[in-house]
Amino acid sequence: NILTYNPLILLLSxxxxxxxxxxxxRFCFGLFVLHSFxxxxxxxxxxxxxxxxxxxxxxxTAVCFSFSLFFINNLGFVPFFFxxxxxPVCIYALLSCAKKFNITSVLLSSFLIVTIYxxxxxxxxxxxxxxxxxxxxxxxxxxxxxxxxxxxxxxTPFIIASLITLPLYIAISDFHDIVMPHKKSLAAAAHV
Length: 192
What we know:
mainly alpha
């Protein structure tokens, strides 16, 4: 449930020197601002580009999503906030990857899914990625683009990201077996 292996946090912690409490708090505040910006920006882009909303409706939808009571109530539990903010980014990246399939879009989408997977809470991460895949499939179905080619295009970043994070979660599972051998459920693993 901690953000130790999140690529964004690892990258920013090498760039920003947070050696005292004030700098650490500024670093955390910057992460909250970054995730809020990403949620609002990509929710607006998603609504305008793929859902064909006009610019005012897409902006209203993005602001309502990004600053909803769900996000405000979950500011105390950072993984929920970070994972929830990355959901519209994931949907937008997957739909863009299906529309323009190249190595850059696949790698960026895979990096985003790895970031979601390593944002702390595994159950919510898997749920957000699953909802993103279902949303993309539903979008293809509504627009008469539900083809095997499009489904494989959105599954490619998901498979790559899952293969990248699989060794991490196997190591966490092995550690969990050593520390708590009597608890064998996913819920127990999520609360270590």
